[in-house]
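ok so i was messing around last nite and threw this chain in just to see what happens. nothing serious, just curious
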Amino acid sequence: MAQHCRGHVTHCLGGILARRGAATVAVSGSRRLTGAEFVAGVRRLAAGLADRGVRRGDVVAVVAFNSIEYMELFLAVTYVGAIIAPLNYRWSFEEATQALELVQPSVLIFDDSFTSWAIRLTENKILPSVALYLVLGDTSSISHAANFVPVDRIKRTVKETTEIEPFSAPNDVALICFTSGTTGQPKGVAISHTSLIIQSLAKIAIVGYGEDDVYLHTAPLCHIGGISSCMAILMAGGCHVLIPKFDTKLAFDAIREHRVTSFITVPAIMADLLSYARYESATVF
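result:
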């Protein structure tokens, strides 16, 4: 029997409703979600996943670019006590397959950029553990694949949800995060709800994140840096601005348009942004 957990990453949803229920909590392109809309989406998706047979302790693998849907998915998977395993979108198909064989997921979720991976897996019956293939975002390019179910369809089938306490997977595991593989094949590291919460609280304390922050997702949600910063902003009640992946112009325009106050970076990203800013100034004047 599933046990309610004491600490859970989705406990941030209550804070989001309280602090940003009517305010924008996530922006991606022209799409904006209020806190209430975001929380409702997470809960509907969690109920839909449960209806599709996703259970406590199941591993749900994901390969996709950053999006609001990815954020919702991260929380919905963990809400029902399943374990999310994000795959690095920079991997080759062979590298991704090795990671999938390691964690033996029961569900694989992908966006339209990785349709070819899902088709190869199903046609060659490479991963028999996967019972459900779900598609994030645009599904127009894969309408021929009847065995791939759009995530939006799962959410739409859930009309109303009864609010329940989230469940934790065995051993409190929330996430399997893959290492860089610098000393061999990438290894899957199990990370608990408690660890993610403590790390997020540390970031809030050290960086000073608050509900007035507007955070730009320059790091991928398959990387622990991107994941932990996302969680910290969710817990702090800030606003998220998402771009699919780092692109200098997209990032620069987002910073300017949405008055971004924070993002995580590396020297190469800062060099690109500063170079682009100088180019923009020279062009304008």
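not much to say yet. The chain has one domain: 9-246.
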